[in-house]
Amino acid sequence: MKKLICALLAVVMLAALCACGGSGSGETIKVGLICIGDENDQGYTYNFVRATETASAELKKQGINVEWIIKYNLIEGDPVAVANEELAEEGCAVIFNNSYGQEPAMLRVAPNYPNVQFVGCTNEGSWKDDLDNTHNAFAHIYEGRYVAGVAAGMKLQQMIDEGTITADGAIIGYVGAYSFAEVVSGYTAYYLGAKSVCPSVTMKVQFVGSWSDATLEANAAQALIDQGCVMISQHSDNTTPATTAEKAGVFHTGYNADMISAAPKASIISTRIDWTNYFVYAISSVAAGKNFDADYSHGMKDGDVVMTDLNKDIAAPGTQEKLDEVIKAISDGSLNVFDTSKFTVGGQSVTTALAIDTDGDFVPDQGEAVWDGVFHESEYPGLMSAPYFNLAIDGITRLNEAY
């Protein structure tokens, strides 16, 4: 299994960094970040930009000064390849590509710059290539989605108890980007969290075929509301599902950023990946001339997955206490999000499932993902951090497909 950064690379990088000098004590390192959107989305890209700031502060404590060069609104294909080339030519020692569709272009460029480290965030191609300078990174965001689902389920159960809706009216609408494993893993975890506190809940999923399209996301949210959904959630990049929910008088939980300011009467809570730890880990490794993992994924117990503040003005009573309990249980391992006793597929219990990536390839040496009664998601360090849970569990209806 690949991959080690050669000793020569470590020496070359360290010498280059020391030659850079920089303001204050220690070395300065140039770091590139290629983003699918811009920080005005107040969601996905905003979350990355925020992490550049917190990571820079942490790295400065180690005597490492970071000069970030950020390129925005690059989705896939040749423009992404050009951006990677430009950042490499500008002297970036590490280049982070922040979205799934960017990785193929990144992998075209990486062989031409063996002394530059290329990272595909939320991706899966680098664990199986033969390059020493490519990496994947993600987080166990399904844990945060489960917690957000608990908050949503408590609100739905409150509405049932108060007679606002009937038990069979506890319907979640989920705006998804695409219908592959990353999104399936997230909405399934969310549904299981909701179901743990609201047993009658069901879910409808509408895919938009884009990671970031504010109008399509709003339209999908409205279509779900028109079908009777009283709670909206999302695996998409913008705040429009939240604002659409508020306009319609239903509730919402978000992703990537606190969306309460966008929809204070609707948005209950969000979950997000905090990329600070990974940025610090990767950049400090390069600065020290050390190897860093080809594949990385951590969760709540390590602080890589976090929850935003709870909107106590609209959350059900007791929600914060329940969330604290659930977060502790996830972190200490006493609660497994994909406990196979908690769901069925086609009315049957799940006793076996394969860990397969989006291209249909088996995770090497670890094809079986279920053991000890749990589907073990993103738990193969050094192999594949990207989600591979792709089961169609009962209680969730996909209204369309978008690959």
Verbal overview:
α6 links the parallel β6 and β7. The protein folds into two domains: 162 residues, Rossmann fold; 220 residues, Rossmann fold (3-Layer(aba) Sandwich). The protein starts with 6 loop residues before the first helix and ends in a 5-residue tail after the last strand. The strands form three sheets. It has a seven-stranded mixed β-sheet, with helices on both faces. A six-stranded parallel β-sheet has the order 2-1-3-4-5-11, sandwiched between helices. It is of the alpha/beta class and 403 residues long. 33% of the residues lie in helices and 18% in strands. It has ten helices and 15 strands. α2 packs across α9.
- Count helical runs: 10
Write the element-wise H/E pattern from the N-terminal end onward: HEHEHEHEEHEHEHEHEEHEEHEEE
Mean pLDDT: 90
Q: List low-pLDDT spans.
A: 1-24
CA distance, first residue to last residue:
29 Å
Under the CATH scheme, which architecture of the largest domain would be assigned?
Answer: 3-Layer(aba) Sandwich
CATH class of the largest domain: Alpha Beta
Radius of gyration: 21 Å
Q: Please tell me what the overall shape is.
A: globular
Number of domains: 2
Q: Going by CATH, what is the homologous superfamily of the largest domain?
A: Response regulator
* Estimated helix fraction: 25-40%
Q: Tell me the structural class.
A: alpha/beta
Topology-level CATH name of the largest domain = Rossmann fold
